[in-house]
Amino acid sequence: MRRSIPTVVVTVIGLILLADFIVANPTLDRVAGAVSEWIMLLAAAAALTGAIALVATHGRALLQRGTDRIGSAVLLLGLALMLIAGFRPGSSGSSDPMTRWLVAALLAPLIASLFALLFFFLLAAIRRGLAIRSRETSLMVVVALAVLVLLLPLGGALGGWLAAAAGWSLSGPIGAVFRGMLIGVAVMGAITAARLLFGVEGTDE
Q1: Which of 90, 133, 162, 178 is least crowded, fewest Cβ atoms below 10 Å from its Cβ?
Q2: What ranges do the domains of the chain cover?
Q3: What is the 3-class SS of the chain, one letter each residue?
Q4: Per-residue tens of pLDDT for the chain, all 205 residues
C-alpha cells in the first residue's frame, strides 16, 4: 500500500497537468497552476537539501583529509562564490553582472573542457566499434562526418548551401530522431507508471 501511494499521487498530478494542456477550463487551469507552484516549491526544497548534503559530504572529506581534498575545496569555493554573488546586497540574482561573469569565466570553460574530453572518449568508442565491424557504429560515424562537413564555416555560395543543408538536417531527420527518442521515453515511462499503479511486476506476463 505504501509503495502505491507515491505512484497514485504522481499519476493524478500528471493527468491533471495533461488535462489542463488539452482542455480549456478555468477551474482546471487554477488547479494546475496551484499544482505547478507546489511542484516548484518541492523542487526548490529538493535542490536546497541536495546542496546541504553536498556541502556536508565535501566538508567532511576536507576536514578528514580525504584523497580528493583539492577537488572538495574547489567545489566548496565555487559554491560559496556563486552564493555570495547571488545573495549579496543589491544583487539582481541570475541577471547580476557578477553572477554572469562567474558563469562566463568559470562554468563555461569547465563545460567546454568536459565536452572536449567527451570528444576523445567518443573517438575511443568509435575505434572499438569499428574494430569489431559494427554496422551501427559505421552508420553513426558516417552521419557524424556528414554533419561536421555541413557545419564547416565556409563562405560564398558553397557555405550558404552547406548552412541550409545543416539547418535542414538538424531540424529534419536528426530532429525526428530526437523527437522519436523523447516519445519512446514518454511511452515507456507511462507503461512503467501503469505497471506500478496496478501492481503488475516485470515478470508477470
Answers
A1: 90
A2: 1-87, 101-133
A3: CCCHHHHHHHHHHHHHHHHHHHCCCHHHHHHHHHHHHHHHHHHHHHHHHHHHHHHHHHHHHHHCCCCCHHHHHHHHHHHHHHHHHHHCCCCCHHHCHHHHHHHHHHHHHHHHHHHHHHHHHHHHHHHHHHHCCCHHHHHHHHHHHHHHHHCCCCCHHHHHHHHHHHHHHHHCHHHHHHHHHHHHHHHHHHHHHHHHHCCCCCCCC
A4: 566 677 777 778 878 887 888 888 888 889 888 988 998 999 999 999 998 998 998 888 888 876 778 888 888 888 888 888 878 887 777 777 888 888 888 878 888 888 888 878 878 877 887 777 777 777 777 877 777 777 666 666 766 777 777 778 777 787 888 888 889 888 887 788 777 666 665 544 4
